[in-house]
Amino acid sequence: MITPLALREKAETQAARLPALLARAEQLAGAVLLGEHGRRRAGMGDDFWQYRPAQIGDSRRMIDHRRSAMGDVQFVREREWQIAQSVMLWVDQGAAMRFASSDEVPSKAERARVLGLACAILLIRGGERVGLTGTRLPPRRGNAQILRLAEMFTEDAEHDYEPPEHRAMIPHARAVFVSDFMGNIDDVKTALTKAADRGVRGVLLHVLDPAEEAFPFRGRTIFESVGGTLEHETLKAADLKDRYLERLAARKAELQHLCSVAGWQYGLHHTDTPAQAGLLWLWRALDGGRAGA
Amino acid sequence: MMVLGPIGFAAPWLLVALVALPILWLILRAIPPAPIRQRFPGVALLLGLQDDESVSDRTPWWLLLIRMLAVAVMILGLAGPVLNPEDDGTASDGPLLIAVDGSWAGAARWTRLTEALDAELRRAGANGREVALLDLADPQAPVFRAANTVAATLPGLTPSPWQPAGADALAAILPEGTFETVWFSDALDYPARADLLAAFQTRGPVRVVQSASDIIALTPAAYVDGVVEVTAVRADGGPERGVSILAQGRDPAGNATILATANAVFDTGATTATTSLSLPAELRARVTRFEVANARSAGAVTLVDDSLRRREIALIAGREGREGLELLSPLHYLERALAPNADLLRGALTDVLPANPDVIVLADVATLSDGEGDAILDWVAEGGLLLRFAGPRVAASDISRSTEDPLMPVRLRAGGRSVGGAMSWGSPKTLAPFRENSPFFGLPVPADVAITAQVMAQPDPTLAERVIAELSDGTPLVTRKREGQGQIVLFHVTANAEWSSLPLSGLFVEMLERLAVSATSSSPEAGDLEGTIWTPEVVMDGYGALRDAGAMPGVPGPALVSDPTGPNLLPGVYVSGDLALARNVLTAEATLEPATWPADVPVSGLVAAPERPLGGLLLAAAIALLLADVLASLALSGRLTGRVRATASALIAALLIGGVAAPGAQAQEEPVDEIAAAAEVVLAHVITGDPDVDEVAEAGLRGLSDTLFFRTSVEPAPPFAVDLETDELAFFPILYWPITPDQPRPSQEAYAKLNDYLRSGGLILFDTRDGDVAGFGGSTPNGRKLQDLAAPLDIPALEPVPRDHVLTRTFYLLQEFPGRHLNGEIWVEAAPPGAEQVEGMPFRNLNDGVTPVVIGGNDWASAWAVTSSGQAMLPVGRGFGGERQRELAYRFGVNLVMHVLTGNYKSDQVHVPALLDRLGQ
Q1: What domains can be seen in chain A, in order of their start residue?
Q2: What is the CATH number of domain B343-514?
Q3: B163-172, B363-372, B656-665: least confidently modelled range
């Protein structure tokens, strides 16, 4: 079982390799709160923006006396208007995620958590607020949030396939869903539809084990889910391969279709590839909106 | 027990189970392999998928075959298969008598015979039978005992150089009661065999074990028409076969060597093969025996006596030059008697003496010059035989008249006498029978030999002992005197028929033979040797190896030639006086008859391969097959993944490598690094081929090298292992040669190298390693092997280390030389005969050089041996005493190396006081 500390340590390692990620907000209106995103206009914020002559209506407290003392005009010191983006994570904690086809690859859950947490760390360093979807951990800033996230990620769920949590999504925030999406596709559809309704855009990261792509099974086999709730017996496993792969491809296609409809991005990550690749893709996906905007 | 070909089954009913194999095949085919439970998250995608076929993957045929084989092999293994089963249908538990011919004919196959005996004994022991062992050639009253007790006596069983004899005596010592007899025959017939068979058959069933009789033996060599003819005989005329016959003898330096080789070819069906060797007289005289190459039996060796030797006889007469009077020539009869068997030298005395003839005959020669006389006297003292005949000149001369002439055995009266002539009284005298101490004793005296004239001996105190033949009236006819190592014989008559008819008779020739003047070319008849006693000088054992006869009793002459060999008449070289006679296993006309047995006696071969149960082997094979099945099943069902695969492949690789590496274990020895060997003092040992012995020898020399390094100024490099065939020996001051009974004999080239090594100052330490069980000698296999190995070496006379040998004080003062064993004495080059202790010196000055060999059996290397970490490798003795013994062993090693390196330096130390004295101190 992975401990919160170890998980955080791994995530820190991953996060340390990337430059600070500044999630770009497409829409500032609405659910904007003070953050470090300069809005290129004067407003509430910590950073200096410009001095302007005091106008009527400015309270005297606002006069910057150091600047005003250099001349006769009284200046007001304006600060840049800054906001922070909210990013909501959902990492599948279902039992199916705890599968690893061999000792050489990590389980899907481990990879998903590391990627999720690394992403969260990058975002928090960038000043964003990160939280989980649902009501358990609303987005907040600061390193303490990383710890809390890590702690949440170490809780295993009982069910084989967890539906995506789509409650309490903050409008116009961003969302990151990490899962193998082996469960009911309708749950995903519901979540994405709801997110799209609220203007939430985000990223769908599909994490798969290599065995799930290759289906290297032969002979008489009883397949059972990790949680033990589902079972399927076959006499010739090799014969099932083609049809399984067809179904898997169909699942991927459907996910992509859903994403494109909802304005999300779809990514596929295999546990036998480096986590860095997954994180890189996540970062680009979250940051890529800036280029497009 | 059921027997199929060479394999028998102890529980044949189990084989019925093989019938079930096809059923098993069907069942195995029908049953699908057990399902694997596979955790797989993608199962959600699989739900609802149906199999195309309702039949699962069939087990592949090769996997089925493996399983079938495993089951079949297991069934076979459980059925108790036995290779080469001894199907003794009479599984009785009564007593068993094992009779062994034990003759020389079985010597070549003795090891196989011992193995067969051992197998027979083990079988008898397994059946709980009591066994008695009867060596027919060397019979002891057999006693029935437990089989393992009898098996313990097997190593003491050796072939005898004779055939069993005395069926009656053997039958008399047979134990009471009935018993079964197993007769291990040597496949050669002998007279007593039928009687023995009858004696055994009265007591119970008889079974015979014998192998094919490919026995080859040699009959005595003969000298015919200028060549030496050697005939090999064999028992049954088989296909054409060639044997190579070696003429063994000594080279001019006295070392045993092969003087000549000849090939004799048996034609198809022939039982004899004759080959002839044309050897120069010098070489011929040095031949001591002929033997068949690679045949180790007394029958394949034929010893050579004087019969091959042509003596050189110088004939010198006093009256020469009377042409046309050949019948009156004093030498005529001598020439006729001697010419067939001897080389005759004619010429002046001073000319023939340097040729060093064996015999000089002076016929009626009265006076010799002083120079000639002295020369002859010297020649006689060195072993020459001076044969003189009287005659008118001798009778007329004053020779040996008042004082005894050195070249005359007796003093002579003037004039001699003539009897039975026209002018004398009496009748011609005849010979008296020869007395017992006479060399002519036993020769028949023909009545028609008459002596009409002779020279008369003066009565002297020594006369009686010098007379070896006399007339009927008691007057001496032949007198003899010993002079140094030679002798002077005087016939008191002429060598021609003037004075007597003796030279006309056959007795004359026989007398000359008895005097070793001439040697017979053919074997002497029993009658010729009547009255002589022959003492054995060298005797042969059953293997054909020669040994010193020691104090064995003599054999009467007739028995020597006519009796068959037996415990009282060993084959060997017998001497009587100056004559030597070889007695071989086979006589000249002997043939070998293969033993044939009545039809009711079962005869089986000498089974080299003993009974061997195969059950374990087959069961192991079954398990291996099942393991292969496990691996194959795993691979087939996809379970052979990751670690399992790695383990399996490692296992298979280990098996393959093990199988491949085992035969290749005997790697070639690297030749010694000559530069390294020459750069430092290096001890070396001879590679024996026994890895344990070689390892201990190496470790022993390492320990000794370390000890030398610590204690002395000798700082040796690590020891070397030396292959006698390929390596140069000159670099090593000392060679340690442990003896194992089965080490190969070095080649001729290797022996030449070893002899060079010994002559140039090398020392070989022979170690028979059996000092705990044997003294020095041929009583153990190691000792015999040592004798065999060392025979061609140029080794001087040996003696046990005297107390004042330089070896006892080269570094440490030692009086015993223990190794791992304590008791054996060690032998070194003997001191010269004249070594005396000089007044005032603590020890004699014995050898000026280093003894070339040191021979012992104390297993020194084991006492010296250290592991690579410097720990003693093998225990010596017990407790402190053992450590003391090891210390003494090291001291012996130090002394030995010091002796080799410094020679007699320590001996010379005794002169130091004298040297100082001379220097005026």
Answers
A1: 4-25+85-292 (3.40.50.410), 39-83 (no CATH)
A2: 3.40.50
A3: B656-665
**In angstroms, what CA-CA distances link B796 with A105, A106, B66, B768, B800?**
82, 84, 69, 19, 13
Distance CA B271, CA B234 (A): 5
Residue A200: name the closest of A251, A284, A139, A119 by CA: A139
Say whether A235 and B36 touch across the interface (CB within 8 A).
Answer: no
**CB distance from A154 to chain B under 8 Å?**
no
- Give per-residue pLDDT as tens, B65-124: 888 888 888 888 888 887 776 655 455 678 888 888 888 888 888 888 888 888 888 888
State the nearest Cα–Cα gap between A178 and chain B, in angstroms: 16
pLDDT tens per residue, range B243-278: 888 888 877 777 778 888 888 888 888 888 888 888
Integer Cα distance of B692 and A247 in angstroms: 70
Task: Output the CA torsion sign for A142, A147, A150, A155.
Answer: negative
Residues of B in contact with A222 (CB under 8 A): 35-38
CATH T-level fold of B96-213+594-610: Rossmann fold (3.40.50)
A212 contacts B42? CB cut-off 8 A:
yes
Which residues have C-beta within 8 Å of that of residue A102, sequence separation ≥ 6?
Answer: A211, B641, B642
Equal fold, B96-213+594-610 vs B674-910: yes
Contact A223 B38 (CB under 8 A): yes
Secondary structure tally for chain A: helices H, strands E: 8, 10
Cβ of B41 within 8 Å of Cβ of A108? The answer is: yes
Name the residue among A218, A222, A236 with its Cβ closest to that of B53.
A236
Domain with residues B674-910, CATH architecture: 3-Layer(aba) Sandwich (3.40)
Domain ranges of chain B: 96-213+594-610, 215-309+532-592, 343-514, 674-910
* Residue contact A99–B39, C-beta within 8 A: yes
CB contact at 8 A, B530 and B510: no
For range B677-702, the mean pLDDT: 89
Chain B positions contacting chain A at CB under 8 Å are 32-47, 49, 51-57, 636-638, 641-642
Burial tier of B897 (Cβ tally within 10 Å: 0-12, 13-18, 19+)? buried
Chain B residues closer than 8 Å to A235 by CB: 32, 51, 53-57
Shortest Cα–Cα distance, A17 to chain B (Å): 32
8 Å CB contact of B43 and A239: no
Do residues B186 and B298 touch, judged by C-beta distance below 8 A? no
∠ CA B467-B473-B475, rounded to 5°: 30
Indicate the residue of B46, B55, B638 with minimum beta-carbon distance to A218.
B638
Query: Are the beta carbons of A219 and B56 separated by less than 8 Å?
Result: yes
User: Are B41 and A247 within 8 A, CB to CB?
Assistant: no
Return all residues near B339 (Cβ < 8 A) that are at least 6 apart.
Answer: none
Give the lowest-confidence range in B20-24, B707-711, B836-840: B836-840
Cβ neighbourhood burial of B616 (10 Å; 0-12, 13-18, 19+): exposed
3-state DSSP: chain B helix, strand, coil percent, rounded to 5? 35, 20, 45
Interchain CB contact of A215 with B (< 8 Å): yes
CB–CB contact B41 A160 (8 Å): yes
Please check whether residue A225 touches B, CB under 8 A. Answer: yes
Chain A residues in contact with B36 by the CB 8 A cut-off are 217, 219-222
* Contact between B118 and B306 (Cβ < 8 Å): no
Flag whether the ipTM exceeds 0.90: no
Is residue A80 within 8 A of residue A38, CB to CB? The reply is: yes
Measured distance CA(B297)–CA(B234) in Å, rounded: 13
Range from B204-208, B489-493, B698-702 carrying the lowest mean pLDDT: B204-208
Any B CB within 8 A of A219 CB: yes
